[in-house]
Design a protein that fits this description.
The protein is α+β, with helices and mostly antiparallel strands. The protein has seven helices and twelve strands. It has a single domain, classed as Deoxyribonuclease I, Chain A. About 25% of the residues lie in helices and about 25% in strands. A hairpin with a 2-residue loop joins strand 6 and strand 7. The protein is globular, with a radius of gyration of 17 Å. This is Exodeoxyribonuclease III. Keywords: Hydrolase, Magnesium, Manganese, Metal-binding.
Amino acid sequence: MLCVLTISTVNVNGMRAAAKKGFVEWLAASEADVIACQEVRAEAGQLPEEVVAPPGWHARHAASSVKGRNGVSVYSRVEPVQVRTGFGEPEFEESGRYLEVHLPGLIVASVYLPSGDAGTPRQEEKERFMAAFLPYLVELRAKAGAAGSEVVVMGDWNIAHREIDLKNWKSNQKNSGFLPEERAWLSRVYDEAGYVDVQRKLAPEGPGPYTWWSYRGKAFDNDAGWRIDLQVATPGLAERAVSARVERAASYAERWSDHAPLTVTYRS
């Protein structure tokens, strides 16, 4: 039986800033059993105690070797039995983009894919990450299955899979995050590696619900967003999902990140 029921993921867009604007209060009020964070951007020593070691949580953090960049975390109510940083690809081992926490019956990973920029070295970095990450996902699912565990890889995947996953899809067809090759790669995660987009399984029609809105213009007010924060799970866990919600702030002023938490509840 799984030891968790409710799981959240959120890109905090800089934990030090988010902690001052409402993340600490959100964490304290959360009923989640596991929370994954991305784009923490700070080392543990730079963060307040209520973020590094909040009461009632076992916190694990993976910082980037480049100061002020990336960084992922996992908070769990149950103490992990194993923790892994990186997925075996030397270029990304200390990049603060992948953290894996093993709990009884469940492996939880926090992932932050590179954002990319079409036609630039940043996009080439994203492509290298994707090329290395897919075979690892295949391997992870196989090992977990052999051990009788489920897997959820959640975080900011920085790819909108289908037209219903972003508001202005027509104008973004040549932009990173909605490139044909990126979307095809995400299809391979589902079709070849055998994972399930949990939120889309529960709400197959769309549009959205979106999880990221640019700070520019009136994207948030107009709900001109992207659905790029995902919980991607093995089929056994995905079948247990009963609800998914985006915890969208009530107003622009109440946002503590340009992303919103995605929270999924699974039956035991």
